[in-house]
């Protein structure tokens, strides 16, 4: 039994394709091959059913109920279900210790304290009267190389403006 189990885990083991008996596929590539071959052989795919416990098991539709009752992978799924139901009452959710960090920001207050002049690209912004530096002009610092300038107009015509 142990040898059979190790054999089934070997990624280099060759498996026969259920859609084309001439195909011998490595176990590690088998799921990808099944998808590809199912598309290439729709007539054979309609005659086969997929095992609900292992998608690698493609069985003739007439034999699927027998396969389901005797599938080796069924025991793994059943054991998982039993373990989950046993642990259902034992699980406790840990109380979170996360606390919100203190915050000195007040976005609503900042909104009311803003100057009433809107931002316009390329123009000088003056500080409001409530600032101690009310007569200092805040110039926009250009990151362009010397001798370069920002274009004065857009490079295209807006569709709603007719320039005839």
UniProtKB/TrEMBL annotation:
It comes from the Eukaryota. Pfam families: zf-U11-48K (PF05253). InterPro entries: TRM13/UPF0224_CHHC_Znf_dom, UPF0224_FAM112_RNA_Proc, Znf_C2H2_sf. Keywords: Metal-binding, Zinc, Zinc-finger. SUPFAM superfamilies: beta-beta-alpha zinc fingers. The keyword Secreted does not apply. The keyword Methyltransferase does not apply. Signal peptide: none annotated. One of its GO terms (molecular function) is zinc ion binding. PANTHER family: GAMETOCYTE SPECIFIC FACTOR 1-RELATED (PTHR21402), GAMETOCYTE-SPECIFIC FACTOR 1 (PTHR21402:SF9). This is Gametocyte-specific factor 1. The lineage of its organism: Eukaryota, Metazoa, Chordata, Craniata, Vertebrata. The gene is GTSF1.
């Amino acid at each position: 039994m142990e040898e059979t189990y190790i054999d089934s885990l070997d990624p280099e083991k060759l498996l026969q394709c259920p859609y084309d008996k001439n195909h011998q596929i490595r176990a590690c590539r088998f799921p990808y091959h099944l998808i590809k071959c199912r598309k290439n052989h729709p007539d054979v795919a309609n005659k086969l059913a997929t095992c609900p416990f292992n998608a690698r098991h493609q069985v003739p539709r007439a034999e699927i109920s027998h396969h389901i009752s005797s599938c080796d992978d069924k025991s793994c799924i059943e054991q998982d279900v039993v373990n989950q139901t046993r642990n259902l009452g034992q699980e406790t959710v840990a109380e979170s210790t996360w606390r919100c960090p203190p915050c000195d920001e007040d976005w609503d207050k900042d909104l009311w304290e803003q100057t009433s002049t809107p931002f316009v690209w390329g123009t000088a912004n003056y500080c409001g009267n409530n600032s101690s530096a009310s007569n200092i002009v805040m110039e926009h610092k250009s990151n362009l190389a010397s001798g370069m300038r920002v274009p004065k107009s857009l490079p295209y015509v807006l569709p709603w403006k007719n320039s005839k």
